[in-house]
Amino acid sequence: MVISNHLDEVIQQIKASCDIPVILFPGSPSQVSKYADALLYLSLISGRNPELLIGQHVVSAPFVKKSGLEIMPTGYIVVDGGAYHGVL
Q1: Which of 21, 71, 78, 88 has the greatest number of CB atoms lying within 10 Å of its CB?
Q2: Cα–Cα distance, 69 to 63 (Å, whole number)
Q3: pTM for this prediction
Q4: What angle is formed at CA 37 by the lines to CA 35 and CA 38, rounded to 5 degrees?
Q5: What sign for the dihedral angle of Cα 26, 30, 34, 35?
Q6: pLDDT of 15
């Protein structure tokens, strides 16, 4: 995970060093770069928090549309958020 203001430079260095696509899994709009090859957008479908469902996607949508990046939309469902208390 890159936690800095140098995301563009890090992606460019990775792409210069290897031939595999760089796919970002952004946690916020600040983690989107036009230098990536694609974005993996996860949406928590079963959650009650609208920020996790679509909130950050909406904030970053104008930049993402302008960037031309390939978008890989993915939804996931949390079936049971509790701990398992049975006997294995």
Answers
A1: 71
A2: 10
A3: 0.70
A4: 115
A5: negative
A6: 96
